[in-house]
Write a structure and sequence with these properties.
The structure holds two protein chains of two kinds. Chain A has no helices and eleven strands. Chain A is an all-beta fold. Classes of the chains: A mainly beta, B mainly beta. At the A-B interface, strand 5, strand 9 and strand 10 of A face strand 5, strand 6 and strand 11 of B.
Amino acid sequence: DSGVTQTPKHLITATGQRVTLRCSPRSGDLSVYWYQQSLDQGLQFLIHYYNGEERAKGNILERFSAQQFPDLHSELNLSSLELGDSALYFCASSGPDEKLFFGSGTQLSVL
Amino acid sequence: AQKITQTQPGMFVQEKEAVTLDCTYDTSDPSYGLFWYKQPSSGEMIFLIYQGSYDQQNATEGRYSLNFQKARKSANLVISASQLGDSAMYFCAMREWGAQKLVFGQGTRLTINP
């Protein structure tokens, strides 16, 4: 168990809908990262938050947004969903040693 | 720009044999970290081992060791005495210490045969 909690584990929704993925980092970790894993794109970095502030953006679509709350949990919001958004979404957290530990992921299926 | 290359899409190994998974990287930053993760069929990403660019000795974690050859920009994962449960996808990743993200290779699918 990595200590990073992601909910839900599975999500099935329709095109055009909006969903929210939730992540609780390991105790004491201030950094939260979101990654998307798909068969054609591999593991793609989406966004990084540190102690509530956005630190870096990767290949994140404008339809996607994220935030990190004062209790350090993070949410990834995906809106106007398309078939191509179907993927495994990972959250990871890290502490001072910079090692990233991943949650078990949320499998999103857009039908 | 960061780049990670894993040249072995798939590997098949007999149980109890040692296996080496290849990883080369490209960076101009002298400060970086190298990671290996395991992703079994259940989907989770499991941290295996870490090597910092200034570490003098190769990292080891149980049956896992990292063969770090800095001049060749190589960071191969060695699994000793492979087990059936080692069958999974393995990802090499790198983070430059000025960067805010981990960059992954395409992965190697390892299959351990009984």
